[in-house]
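Action item from last week, closing it out:
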Amino acid sequence: MKLSIALGALGSAAILALAASAAPAQSASSGGAPGRAGFAERRMQTLLKDITLTAAQQGKVDSIRARYSAQLPAVTPGTRPDSATRAKMRDVFRQQDDEIRGVLTADQQKTWDKNIAEMRARRPGGQ
């Protein structure tokens, strides 16, 4: 009986450890935070959908994102940014996107371009 309970507990611990190791890692840039950082992380996940980066590419992308993140205007969580702030954010994201695209291979760029087009098509005004 004790052996059965011990094996059951051990099995449960193994399953939990496996599930934790298989969970997607969150970027250090967002920490899963709500607001601007959370939005930027979700946006990047959408743009990198179906793209597997090498370690070298991931390092470059992380560096690019950190540099452009500092340029994003501050926004108050729960309030819609004004048109000037939205325009600034769009400009920063486009510059960042262009630089990240340059890190990708030709095949990855095709997927990136498709993801960008899909994202813009879903946005109000299709920008």
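Closing note: Residues 30-126 form one domain.
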